[in-house]
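Why run this: before we spend reagent on co-expression, it is cheaper to look at a predicted model of the complex and decide which construct boundaries make sense. The entries below are exactly what would go into the expression plan.
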Amino acid sequence: MEEKQLLAQIRNLSVEYKTRLGQVSAVDGVSFDIYKGEILGLVGESGCGKSTMGKALMRMIQPPGKITDGQIIFQGEDIMTYDDNQMRDFRGRKVSMIFQDPMTSLNPTQRVDEHIIEAIQVHESQTKTEEALTRAEKMIRKLGMQRRRMNSYPHQLSGGMRQRVMVGLGLVLNADLIVADEATTSLDVIVEAQLADQLKDIREEFGVSLLVITHNIALVAEISDRIVVMYAGHVMEIADVEPIFDNPLHPYTRGLLKSIPNIKLVDTEELYKMPGEPPNLTHPPSGCRFHPRCPRAMPICKTYEPDLEEVSSGRFVKCWLYIDHPEKESETIKVEA
Amino acid sequence: MSSSLRRFLITRILLTIPMVLILVTLIFFVMRVLPGDPIRSQLGPRVSEEQANVLRERLGLNRPLYVQYFDFLWDMVTLDFGTALTQGERPIKDELGERLPATIELTIPAITITALLGILSGAFAAKNRKKPIDYAIRLMSIAIYSIPIFFMGLLFQIVFSVRIPILPLSGRMDTLLLTQFESITNFYVIDSILTGNWPALKSAIGHLIMPSITLGLALTGVFVRLTRVNMIEMLQSDFITAGRARGIPERRLVYKHALRNTFIPILTLLGLQFAILLAGAVLTETTFSWPGVGRYLVDRIELRDYTAVQATIAVFALFVAAISLLMDILYAFIDPRIRY
Amino acid sequence: MKKKYLLLIVVLLLSSLVLGACQQATEEPVAEETEEPVVEEPTEPEYLWTANLRQAIAAAIDREVIVDRVFEGRNVPAYHMVPDGYPYATQPFFDKYGTRDLDMAISLLEAEGYTADNPFEFTLWYPPEHYGTTTADVMQVIKEQLEETGLMVVTLQSMNWAEYVNGFVAGDLPFFILGWFPDFADPENWLSPFASCLQSPDNGVNYCNEEMDSLLQAAAASADPAERESLYQQIGELYAEEVPTIPLFWEPEFVSYRTGVEGVVVGAPFEFNYRVLSFGEDAQPASGSTDTIIVGTTDEVNSLDSADAYATHDWEIIKNTGVALLSYTPGTSELVPGAAAAMPEVSDDGLTYTFTLRDDLAFADGTPVTAQNYVDHWNRLDTLEGQVSGLVQLYVDSVEAVDELTVAYHLNDTFGFFPALSATAPFVVGNPANFTTDEIVAFPEAVDGIGAYRMVSHTPGEQMVLEANPNYFGEAPLIPNVIIRYFADPTTMSNAVESGEIDVAWRTLGPVEAVRLQEVDGVTVDKVDAPALRYMVFNHTFEVRE
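The model came back. Tokens follow.
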């Protein structure tokens, strides 16, 4: 494997939402790294906090939500210290985002070229419109769309084309990290496959990192290098893609993978459903947040919250099964490299 | 312009004709059904019944209804509009020719004020949702909306014309300047520019300030609320978030991206309000002695002046139809989804 | 899609045709002037208003109380239809009923057979807006006063003006309030319209009494002051006895003007002469110069054609831009020669009044005025059937130009008040250049009459400009330019006189604004005892309903 260079480090990030029912701890003390040129998959059920995580990376959390703790160190600088102007510069130029529904993510009253030119000129105010237009054209062609599409409005484009425009907007300023938040969820399978390929291509061509946030395990299996599994606002497991599929450590990860519909299922076999439901995050469970649903739960899991520990090179897991504790009764499982 | 749009517009224009026809027919019959007649309403008991009949005969009021109706229709079609039944039987065309421009000259700045003030405050309030300034704007908009127009007008008059005399009290132009004023289109602002009469221009604009602000403020509240609500929704939409993610500054997001998309419902309201303004200008016209068509209509209805009322309402209907059409054309410009 | 609309239009047109046909079928043909044979009514209709009832109500009403409670003493109680200060005016209602005679009212009602258990019930009608919002209060006070007898139950009902007029002209209203403003300054104009057989139906009175009629005709036809005085005395007494109508009170008019404006006088004939207005030493003219005065009004011009005009403001303009045959000394009811060189000569049979015109009469554009102009003017009035034609045709039969400067009026009867009539606006000769012979010109481009001013421009609803007439035979006006500014609202107008935008505010200021302006510095408010009467009308042919 090549020498991996750090792009971003998230340390102890917490995001809370103030709701009428109480404070929701959507992301709680999350830490992980993102390397240059890697495709990192961030998976989990709905409501696990992965989308919030993605938005938090760009400090796009709107009230009543707030980042309450932690650092986001991007290329050596903690963007939590940035002021408004610095953030605006950061967004789009350093990190950009692709959204779930490209129809609603594009301004219906703006043409494609207007979208791209605006994105350029907002960051580089001295760039003339002509030059920006040329760059926009190049981007469009590179994404495999015809030039005449530049004058189109979003509603005149197909779903796949719109998504490509989104990707183009993400790339046009040579961002270092692209966050894809459920980018394929609203696409049909064929288009989804096209986009997946495209994402891989742009990583090859531009060396850009991708954070693919999705609940579609198949997708991350296809394109990611590494996977981060989140549950109830916590990171439960981080590993390279193959090891995690061959040997999922965390009971939640195991359950998640078992839940994938398999075409090889025999008629009599039922789909695996994980028992229970994700917890209410205004009053999260004590100790390990997964313990109420965990088939391997131990008494200690209710009392103490485990840390996210590196149990083998590049493998992290947050589970008492693999971590020592004086009050633990059972044996700690050892993980091979 | 695409051919579908062209077809759409032509159809709309053609549909206006039956609309106006139905409306004026309704008015024709409603007026006749109302008790009272123009002769008696104007002269009261002053004339004998015999004399009154002679006058009615002269005005053609004793003709069979369908004759009067067709006569009226013919007048409309030839854009003649006939003569009024009261007040010296002045040709209605002349009367409207003087009064309609007066009202329009008043409503255009008024609607501009309403739109600008209302839309910008609404957008501003939406942007600063739940902050004190948001509550302040909403409170102000309700307060202003609740104050009766004539009260506001009188208040302005007393403060700015009587106590601190900086603005003219009433009328369209300074008395002495008006004696020398040459009026071509009856839009005093335009006419003073056309004739190069600069003191008159200054006077005309000065006289427009209070009445148009009064009229404009009255409807601002509606626009503030509508804009605010739509903007709040719009600001939560995905493309705004996407824009923010691209680093587009907040102000640009609000006033360029969000506002432009909110325009469809706002334009609709603008079109409707313009029609209301035309007729509702009555109170403002009364307070500021503005010789407009609102007042004219109210007076004529009271006097049961059939022909004047019919003609005026027909013109109103045409106006409303025109505004409505204009709105539709503007939609097409603003929202590309309609165009293509 | 378009077919649907076409169908709709066709349906509409067809239905209007049908409606029109129905209308025509049910419409009575316009009454022709044919002699109708007198038909004997099989049964005598029973009329509601007996003499006792009318007197009872006249006795029960206390005008002083009304004036105090509703108008804070501003109005003047009326004890006769004829205004105080008019020739031959008396106070017959006071003579008969005092300020109030409740006992008389009660005994009259009892004589009619009404008791506390079986009171006299009827409806009292009024228009809520036409005479001001105080009308409702007046009605309320009257209702209370009548019910104080314990033998009457009064229901108040209102109807908006247009319907109201229709109602009483059709004879639907039994007892209602009306207002009256004179056409000319003579008791004839205050009595015959209500009490004569011929004219009373026009006001919904429907009163006809032989004795009254002959007295009225005799008084109208007499030219002898002593005879007229005695006749009107009798008429007054009979009026209080018969009670065709009940006079209530006189409503004053208010005029307001800035300090320094002088010459504001309005006399009993209710004429406002602009030519005697002037600026004193401490005046601050609204126009900025002492040669222009600005007068504000809430009236509107209805018609400036003297063969048509029948409204107060119109007459005011006509009499300032023209002169009638006779005129009044400003501020008085003294009749003096106007366009005529001297008072008219009356023929022996009293039917012809001959006026000798001044020899220096000329229209403002220089055209000389001759007797033929007066004949043409009469012909115009007679044939064009303007609003005021009926008034003049009632009294005048024909007009003749005896010679170039002599014009003779042949009357329908020996009307002794004709001089007063000849001082009214219909007797102001119009310039043929402004007023064409073949149609009424309500809004002429200019008025070049024989008066102190000529009308130079008129923008309806905005203003009218008058300039001194160089060809005026009398003394040039003290202020050469008058601009009349039209207001839509009395409050705005009073603000204008307060802020100095206008010099004079006249008609209609209203009591509220008048009282307010009295407290303001730099502004004077005068009360003008306007001959505007409010009176109650009995519909004498209103039948008893079960």
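Chain B touches chain C through 71 residues (CB under 8 Å). Chain B has a mean pLDDT of 84. Bring this page to Monday's planning discussion.
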